[in-house]
Amino acid sequence: MTKEEIQIYTRRITNGNRTDLVVTTYDIILTYFHDARVALGAGEEKQFIWNLKKASDFLNELIHALDCQYQLGKDLLLLYRYIQDIVTQCIMKKIEEGLDSAENIIIKLKTSFEEVAKQDHSGPVIQHGGQVYAGITYGRGTLNELYDNSSRGFKA
């Protein structure tokens, strides 16, 4: 994952509501799947495994956030565990076989949660997460964004 992608995901997490966080987590998982495939194609098995382990970490976050008191939570748990099994097999065998299936499930879930996100008008989960200002600085031929997180934390 590039530094730019990390900044984009950080901004989305900082400013996102609950549903946006799920969509962002799916995007992060898909990015790690992509990076794993690129690494395997380049013959970098360690990087392949590292990327899949990071994707697995984010799947675990989704699993721990589930409320299995409801049927939807139970159904999502089964899907997430199935994806975890695929990722684990890919790591153990150092192959990408099955990643297409896992990726397709994540894409379908992401699409569904994007629709839900359109109806979720709750505020950001992280309060006082900072403000993004566009147009404060200009690069050569580009418009840069400035992220101000000075309102976070304690000031000495």
Summarize the structure.
The chain is mainly alpha-helical and 156 residues long.
The helix-and-strand class reads: mainly alpha
CA radius of gyration is: 18 Å
Instruction: Give the end-to-end Cα distance, rounded to a whole number of Å.
Output: 34 Å
Outline the low-pLDDT stretches. none
Strand order of the largest sheet: 1-2
Q: H/E series, N to C? A: HHHHHEE
* Annotation field: number of helices: 5
Mean model confidence by pLDDT: 84
Spell out the key features of this protein.
5 helices; 156 residues; mainly alpha
Strands, helices and their partners?
Blueprint: H1 3-15, H2 18-41, H3 45-65, H4 71-93, H5 99-119, E1 131-139, E2 142-148
Antiparallel strand pairs: 1-2
